[in-house]
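Anyone else keep sequences and C-alpha cells together like this?

Example one:
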Amino acid sequence: MVTKKITITLPEELVEAARGLTDNLSGYAAEALAAKIRHALLGQELDRHEQEHGFFSEADIAAAEGELFGEKTSAGAA
C-alpha cells in the first residue's frame, strides 16, 4: 500500500493513551481510521438494502447474530 504523510491535530490525552498501547502510532491510527471507514461503508450498505427491500425483521437480525456470534442460549439453559 502506498502511504502519504499528513499532519493531524489530536487531543494530547488521546496521543498519550495511544502511545501507551503501541510503538507504531501511525499504524495504530491507520488501523483505527480503516475500521471507521469500514463501519461507515457497512452502514451505508445496510441503509441502501433497507431502502430497496424494507427493514430487517427480528428474525433477520437474530439469524445474522447467530451467524456472527453463534446461537444464543436462553437464560437458565445449561
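And example two:
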Amino acid sequence: MVKQVNKDKRSVTLDPEVIEYVEDMAAKEDRKFSQQLNKIVKDYRKLIEEKEG
C-alpha cells in the first residue's frame, strides 16, 4: 500500500551548486529530486530539534 500525503507545490530558486548536490544525493539514494529535497529538510529539522532538546 502506498501512503498518500497531501502536498503543496511551490516554486523555489536554488543556486546551481545546491541543485547539483541534491541531484547527486537523489541519484545515490534512488529518489526523485523533490523526494530528496524533502528528506534533507526533514533530516535537518530533526537534527535541530534534537539539539534544542
